[in-house]
């Protein structure tokens, strides 16, 4: 089998951390196909949304640099075509599929010998890729990953999504919650399959704090950083509204306030924030307003290898997301033996149920409400959610969680190879027993 993969979420020279989960999956699919047949391959198309047309030549040069010079521009060995796409942020969302289509049209004559088109992200990627696949006579498969389902709330985009799903051969959802939402929207249940995300088990595994501390000390030049006599929370995500970083800071302020009242210095509490995004400046201002700037460290985007170290250096992962699919950061935490406190959104409960080292925070429908830093808020239950998070995190801090045993329980539960084999099996007509947890 030869496969065309299409997504705007994929590592690029200017954004090497972008869409790492897709890169891991695509490479695993390529590896599986090569084992099955040395002539098989994956041709990846990375769509690069960019309204500044004068930057397109630079994007096109990424392809020349890769093909002619043999220079690897990312850590992944997948053959990739970088394709610039005109894109109008927000106001142009309903036209994104059309602009994406103009760019893909240039590849119509390059599809000979391929067997299927696999796209990730429901809209515009999935919609456009399915139209492209129908045009070139190939079966289309769409992967739904989480936040992309919010496009179903727009009547125009919803109609296009449902039409694309009706023409697609199959729809892959990374958790049951997403599958249920897609089916409720009107997608044929026969086409929908649940295939959980994968994991790099060589990278994300249990290691003792002392083992990773020295490596991290060399990376973090910040006077507040210390794992000695400290309790550290980790937040890993893009700094965008749906991931709830503003909620995270309110949770943190509550914990710090409680520690002061109990006469425990707040210097013994630290919050490490890994990730970047359009909310960062507002969040840095919020930290000052909440009076917790001396215990919060913004680390920005960090390499995947370093994130794996942090998973072993801290005491708890906090994920106050407003919406999710099957969050990879939770899968990575489980494999590392890191306790988790997360909102009950998407596939979180599927991942964390029956795990004694985790807590799940119930949360009401919150996507359509405005937060103080822009985007959806935690709504009328804001105080309840923050209080519950603070309570559960405090419990985790007090408990003696056997982190090594936690990592062992989750060992082998997820892998990119397993996800790749399952998806490719579905493409080849193999019926799979679909389950999201063991």
Question: Would you mind describing this structure in some detail?
Answer:
The protein has 438 residues and is α/β, with parallel strands linked by helices. It has two domains: 210 residues, Rossmann fold (3-Layer(aba) Sandwich); 202 residues, Rossmann fold (3-Layer(aba) Sandwich), CATH 3.40.50. Strands 3-2-1-4-5-6-7 form a seven-stranded parallel beta sheet, sandwiched between helices. Strands 10-9-8-11-12-13 form a six-stranded parallel beta sheet, sandwiched between helices. Strand 8, helix 8 and strand 9 form a beta-alpha-beta unit. Helix 3 crosses helix 4, helix 8 packs parallel to helix 9 and helix 8 crosses helix 13. About 4% of the residues have low confidence.
Spell out the blueprint of helices and strands:
Layout: E1 2-7, H1 20-36, E2 41-49, H2 56-69, E3 79-85, H3 96-104, E4 116-120, H4 122-136, E5 140-144, H5 155-167, E6 170-173, H6 176-185, E7 192-194, H7 209-219, E8 231-236, H8 245-261, E9 269-274, H9 280-290, E10 296-300, H10 304-313, E11 316-319, H11 328-336, E12 340-343, H12 348-352, E13 358-361, H13 382-398, H14 403-410, H15 416-427
Parallel strand pairs: 1-2, 1-4, 2-3, 4-5, 5-6, 6-7, 8-9, 8-11, 9-10, 11-12, 12-13
Amino-to-carboxy terminus distance: 30 Å
Tally of separate domains? 2
Query: How much is the radius of gyration in Å?
Result: 22 Å
Number-wise, the strands total 13
Give me the CATH fold name of the largest domain.
Rossmann fold
> Structural class, from secondary structure content?
alpha/beta
Strand order of the largest sheet: 3-2-1-4-5-6-7
Determine the fraction of residues in helical runs and give it as a percent range: 40-55%
Tally of DSSP helical segments: 15
Given as residue ranges, the uncertain stretches (5+ residues, pLDDT < 50) are 365-380
Look at the structure and name the CATH superfamily of the largest domain.
Glycogen Phosphorylase B
Main pleated sheet = 7 strands, parallel
Please, what is the average pLDDT? 87
* Range of strand content: 15-25%
> Quick one: CATH class of the largest domain?
Alpha Beta
The dominant shape is globular
Please provide the ordered H/E string of secondary-structure elements. Answer: EHEHEHEHEHEHEHEHEHEHEHEHEHHH
The assigned CATH architecture of the largest domain is 3-Layer(aba) Sandwich
């Amino acid at each position: 089998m030869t496969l065309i993969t299409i997504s705007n979420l994929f590592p690029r020279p200017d954004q090497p951390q972008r869409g790492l989960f897709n890169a891991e999956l695509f490479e695993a699919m390529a590896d599986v196909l090569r084992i099955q047949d040395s002539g098989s391959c994956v041709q990846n198309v990375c769509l690069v949304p960019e309204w500044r047309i004068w930057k397109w030549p630079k994007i096109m040069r990424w392809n020349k640099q890769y093909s002619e010079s043999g220079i690897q521009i990312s850590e992944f060995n997948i053959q990739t075509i970088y394709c610039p796409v005109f894109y109008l942020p927000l106001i142009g969302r309903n036209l994104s599929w059309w602009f994406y289509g103009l760019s893909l049209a240039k590849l119509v004559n390059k599809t000979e010998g391929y067997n299927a088109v696999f796209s990730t992200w429901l809209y515009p990627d999935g919609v456009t890729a399915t139209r492209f696949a129908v045009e070139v006579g190939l079966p289309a498969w769409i992967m739904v990953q989480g936040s992309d389902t919010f496009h179903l709330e727009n009547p125009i985009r919803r109609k296009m999504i449902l039409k694309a799903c009706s023409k697609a051969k199959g729809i892959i959802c990374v958790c049951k919650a997403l599958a249920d939402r897609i089916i409720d929207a009107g997608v044929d249940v026969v086409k929908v399959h649940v295939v959980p995300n994968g994991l790099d088990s060589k990278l994300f595994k249990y290691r003792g704090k002392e083992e990773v501390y020295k490596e991290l000390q060399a990376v973090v030049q910040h006077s507040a950083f210390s794992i000695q006599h400290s309790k550290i929370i980790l937040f890993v995500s893009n700094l965008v509204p749906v991931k709830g970083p503003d909620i995270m800071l309110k949770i943190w302020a509550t914990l710090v306030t409680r520690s002061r009242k109990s006469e425990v210095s707040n210097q013994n509490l630290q919050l490490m924030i890994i990730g970047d995004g359009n909310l960062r400046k507002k969040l840095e201002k919020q930290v000052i307003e909440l009076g917790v700037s001396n215990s919060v460290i913004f680390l920005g985007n960090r390499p995947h290898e370093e994130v794996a170290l942090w998973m072993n250096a801290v005491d708890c992962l906090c994920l106050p997301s407003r919406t999710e699919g099957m969050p990879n950061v939770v899968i990575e935490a489980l494999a590392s033996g890191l306790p988790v406190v997360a909102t009950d959104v998407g596939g979180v409960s599927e991942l964390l149920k029956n795990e004694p080292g985790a807590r799940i925070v119930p949360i009401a429908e919150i996507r359509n409400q405005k937060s103080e830093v822009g985007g959806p808020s935690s709504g009328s239950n804001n105080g309840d959610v923050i209080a519950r998070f603070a309570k559960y995190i405090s419990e985790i801090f007090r408990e003696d969680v056997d982190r090594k045993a936690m990592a062992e329980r989750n060992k082998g539960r997820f892998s990119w190879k397993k996800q790749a084999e399952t998806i490719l099996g579905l493409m080849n007509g193999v019926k799979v027993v679909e389950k999201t947890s063991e």
